[in-house]
Amino acid sequence: MRIDSHQHFWNYHPDRQEWIGPEMGRLKRDFLPEDLYPVLQASQIDGCIAVQAEEHLRETAFLLELSESHPWILGVVGWVEVAQDNLDELLDSWSQASKLIGFREILQSKESEYMLRKEFIRGIQKLGSRGYTYDILTYPQQLSAALTMVDKCPNQRFVIDHLSKPDIKSGDWKAWKKSLQPFGERELVHAKVSGLVTEADWKKWDANQLYPYLEIALEIFGPKRLLFGSDWPVCLVAGEYEQVLEVIDSFTNQLSADEKEAILGGTAQEFYSI
Questions:
Q1: Distance from C-alpha of 254 to C-alpha of 230, rounded to nearest angstrom
Q2: Are the C-beta atoms of 194 and 228 separated by less than 8 Å?
Q3: Which of 21, 50, 60, 145 is the most buried (most CB within 10 A)?
Q4: 26-38 pLDDT, tens digit each
Q5: Cα angle at 22 between 28 and 238, to 5 degrees?
Q6: What element of type H or E holds 152?
């Protein structure tokens, strides 16, 4: 099964998607399942994971509703404030939502200390005890704190979104690699090869600029802990879905059939228990 492990849906509203700036005009509209499904079919992708884009409880409800009416939305990574006191109550309310497989907060917009608070760590541990995964969305300079968080939650399954957004446009990779490397030793931590085109020059990128970062990710995590994700529709500011997929498809041609299959779907299926 070929799975896109990372994409988004939204009904566009400037106050809810305030991160969409003037230079991202193509994203200032609704993006819904009927927009994505033909693209997935054309790319021979069997299903996807819908990941939160808004930090509000209505986001989780919205994505779950879409997943109920579209069986090819295989799972939902919703939003919840992990550190809040009523986390157990909220998780209880979702106990029958079989497609709710994990959670994410926009950690990249917060101070590194945010994820080191005892309330946050306690919340992550609660997610793990119920079988939920956690997507780590950070910038490279936050990886040190993220590593401490991971070590405080040794039984939790984590996945690093977008390889923690290396600065591909500048070509700076050494500090990023050094910060990412220790996660390779944490067996329950995976990583998504997603969102890379938007970290490159939107107008001038090519696959050869992305391959060194993919090589480093492969070296650190191996094919069994890497997941393909398109980051659609955000990727559209830099390239079409087919272009994003082609980068990963071409890169993985060097691997065995089993290893290629893992990155393009098998790892996602196992990690998210689909």
A1: 20
A2: yes
A3: 50
A4: 999 999 999 999 9
A5: 75
A6: helix 143-152
